[in-house]
Amino acid sequence: MKVLVINAGSSSLKYQLYDMTDESVLAKGLVERIGMDSSILTHKPTGKQEVTEVSEILEHTTAIRKVLANLTDKEHGVIDSISEINAVGHRVVHGGETFKASALVDGAAKSEIRRLFDLAPLHNPAAVMGITASEVNMPGVPQVVVFDTAFHQTMPEKAYMYAIPRVLYNKYKVRRYGAHGTSHDFVSKAAAEYLGRPLEDLKIITCHIGNGASVTAVKGGVSVDTSMGMTPLEGLMMGTRSGDIDPAVVPYVMNKEELTPGEASSMLNKHSGLLAISGTSSDMRDIIDGYEKGEPNSTLAFEMYEYRLRKYIGSYAAAMDGVDVIVFTAGVGENASLLREKVLSNLTFLGIELDKEANKVRSGDPRRISASGSKVEVLVVPTNEELVIARDTLRIVQEQA
Ligand SMILES: Nc1ncnc2c1ncn2[C@@H]1O[C@H](COP(=O)(O)OP(=O)(O)O)[C@@H](O)[C@H]1O
Ligand SMILES: CC(=O)OP(=O)(O)O
Ligand SMILES: [Mg+2]
């Protein structure tokens, strides 16, 4: 059984082809800068030479076509024909209240995901493009959708309701949903396993810090609160997203600058965060570079990012009346040792002691970065959203058979 996993992000598309007989990855890759001047496709076939292709890829349909061409290529391909792909699993950010678990794609599922476009304008449209392109290129192959929001459906009402007129929830389902659930679920389980302790007994704070970023309070294995809200805009400061902001700022600026709702949304989602404060980049590598050189705008961006993340960790320790484990994951969380060091060295009131040397180690495996006397275990756990999606896809397709 071969499963192709597609993670269609706002301007990128990641893919992995799994052989599920042993969960081995046959090939993986990434299409970056979709819709920008020159897109980059990086294809990594296991055991073969990596290839990079620069071309103009304006939307996700073309991206998938190029991915399939690479997977079946005579030289750097890993399968002879597309027909070897038995199922496709898609990451979908927003499942609303409808999807509490992964689901098989059919007409009804697709139109429900479309109905949820407003709730995840940067992400759900890309997912539907991925699904449609897969249907066109791989007709008859079953497809499964795995939702970022599903894991957070356990949040209690007091965590997911906004203090605004209830009619808005009743009419439009305006509430908090969270995101990155597949990752928070995976790394919290992996952390318990690494520590050899029962998940049911643990209070874990998982920090998924990538381009999009969110923090989750996981108590006894379930999400009890998370920093993203109705859309992936709430919470932490991110690469290009503002995170938490006084809602009064929005109508004020819309009025002053004569912005449409779409323009206001674009300002907060695409032109804010690290990019806005640094004035140069949304990429944490560039921000750290600037910070280390003492460049003032990057320094402010880094300090705001760190401060806001630290405040969320503190508030989730309060939400759970304690914390046993803190987990860092995703692009920034797994790699930015300086950010981890700054966050953790300012959380000593929680009894956290950092092992500075362990924090500098680079590895693809879960690892402990807290010192032996630390009251809270701090781990770096590489996330693997794709593996979770492949497993769910296999299970759901087999249940149908
Ligand atoms: N070595 C590194 N140091 C600091 N940040 C890094 C490093 N490598 C990657 N990143 C950050 O990780 C981010 C991407 O994370 P990722 O989890 O892949 O995001 P997404 O899934 O949202 O595209 C990049 O924007 C970059 O800022
Ligand atoms: C939901 C979200 O923010 O996703 P990503 O981090 O992939 O942008
Ligand atoms: Mg991601």
Any key phrases for this structure?
6-stranded mixed β-sheet, 38% helix, binds acetylphosphate, Nucleotidyltransferase, domain 5, 401 residues, binds adenosine-5'-diphosphate, 19% strand, globular, binds magnesium ion, alpha/beta
Describe the structure in your own words:
It is a single chain. The protein has an 8-stranded mixed beta sheet, with helices on both faces. Helix 1 crosses helix 3 (about 125-135) and helix 10 crosses helix 11 (about 295-320). It has helices at about 60-70, 105-115, 125-135, 155-160, 165-170, 180-195, 250-255, 260-270, 275-280, 285-290, 295-320, 330-335, 335-345, 355-360, 385-400; strands at about 1-10, 15-20, 25-30, 40-45, 50-55, 85-90, 105, 145, 205-210, 215-220, 220-225, 325-330, 365-370, 375-380. It is of the alpha/beta class and about 400 residues long. The longest helix is centred in the last third of the chain and has 24 residues, at about 295-320. The chain starts with a strand and ends with a helix. It has 15 helices and 14 strands. Helices cover about 40% and strands about 20% of the residues. The protein folds into 2 domains: about 1-145, 2-Layer Sandwich (Nucleotidyltransferase, domain 5); about 195-380, ATPase, nucleotide binding domain (Nucleotidyltransferase, domain 5, 2-Layer Sandwich), CATH 3.30.420. The chain binds adenosine-5'-diphosphate, acetylphosphate and magnesium ion (MG). Adenosine-5'-diphosphate (ADP) binds near residues 211 and 285. Homodimer. GO terms for molecular function: acetate kinase activity; ATP binding; magnesium ion binding. Catalyzes the formation of acetyl phosphate from acetate and ATP. Can also catalyze the reverse reaction. Keywords: ATP-binding, Cytoplasm, Kinase, Magnesium, Metal-binding, Nucleotide-binding, Transferase. It is an enzyme of class 2 (transferase).
